[in-house]
Every structure is written in structure tokens, then in C-alpha cells.
Amino acid sequence: MAASVLVCACDGPNVSRSMGSAICTASTPRLHRVLAMLKASESGFRVNERFSVRVHAPIKAKRRWRGCERSVGDTGKRCGRHVSVGVFAASEEESQSAKPIPPPPYGKLSVPVYSLATAGVFNGVSKSRASMNITTYATPIAIQPARRFIIALYHGTLSTENMLARGKAVLQILGEQHAELLPLLGKASGHEIDKIALLEERGFETVERYGVPTLASCLGVVELSIVNIQDVGDHDVVLCDVERYEDFASESDLPLYTAKLRELGLIT
What we know:
The protein is of the alpha+beta class. The chain has helices at residues 28-40, 92-97, 158-166, 182-187, 195-201, 258-263; strands at 4-11, 17-19, 22-25, 46-48, 63-66, 81-88, 114-118, 131-132, 138-142, 148-154, 168-173, 206-209, 212-215, 220-231, 235-247.
């Protein structure tokens, strides 16, 4: 039988401890960091996590998302939500027999690439950083009686936490000149780095629009305010009203699509 370790996070009591084969952390962002360390280690473990969009073979894992039914650690408190992630070391035989899961057919379509810009939020003690991400899970869905968008927010990211806390964000329309920003905005965590400062260092000026740092060179901005939130698994789907928008694109500007990212070898 393959060896395994259970990694879990509880949003509630401030607990961080290791119990046998279980590693328990106090927050979802910290869970991401634990998973990153496991992936980077040479222990032979393969990770199937609750936040993963794709399953990487060979993996065997158990996942659950539920209310905690037992107290955590020695605090005697109960947490409101629980995430557990199974991390298993696959045997050589299992590795050879594992079959990769093919991508869905809609993954081949070319869709717009956006960046969601969020302002930092003061929680009474400290203020979080402003941040930006990369998203393709965004689409307009209504015109009358109000323009509306839906955005999918990945659990545990700084952009998600900022938008849910503030209730607003600015969706940026990107151009092909922004393709090089994919690793910074889409593959790095705002919990770990200051994306706004790094954008400036790389020569991408930022300006404040609607109270949020945005790319000066973006092709357009849409201010969104949250109407409703639905947890759908590894994302929250957020229904938003379009409050204001501006178009900065010239006739020569080309919006960024996933086809361009594939052409450049940035995604598969």
C-alpha cells in the first residue's frame, strides 16, 4: 500500500501542529505553502489537492470539504470549515499503470485573458497588499436592467480575499503586450510577493482607478461590485454589477487571448 500523509486546514482556531501522519494548519493560504513544500521536496510524494484544477498522475487521494465535527488540537474549539488533502506516494507499479486524464474539449477554445485588480483591506490590525491576478473565468451575462459579470475566484488567493472583504474589484482588459506578465500575475502568490512593486520594477507603470492600483497600459477597466457569491468547489463564483467602465484601446491594440499564450508556449 502506498504511504500517505493528510494535510488539512481549518478556518477558525489558531492551530498549527503535526500529529503523526497529519499536518494541520490554521489557514488556507498556509495550506498552499505546505503543499508547495511537499511538491518541492524529494520525498517522492505526489499531491492531489482540493484546489487543483487538474489531476496529475500518478495520484491517489482523498478529499473532503465539510464542517468540523471534532475539536482541533488542544483548543477545544470547533472550526467552521475544513479542507483536507490526501498526499500519497505512488508505487512504481501504480505509476506505470496510471493513465493521464485528457483535457476537456472546451480547454482548446481561445478565450479572453483578464487581470482582476484588488485593493488591500484593513482588518483592524494590519492592511493586506493590493494585488492582481490572471483569470479567464470571467464573462458578461446581462445587459438589462443592469450590466452584470460573473467571475470565478480561486480559493485561498489574495485577490479572492481582497475582493470578498471589500466587495469590489476592477477587471482589466489585457493586451498582447501583457502576455509576459502571466508568470508574475498568474503563477505567483500575492501572499508571498508584492506584485504591484514588481510590476513597477519590470517597467509596467500602475495608476489608481476607482481606488485600486491598475496597469496604466491595460486596454480597459470594468469596476465590479459583488451581488451574490456561490461556492462551487475550488472556486467561488461571484455575480457582480458593472458599476463603471473605461475603454483605453486604440485601433492597433490587440486584446490578449489564450491562443496567444499557447503560441508563446506560456500555457498548453
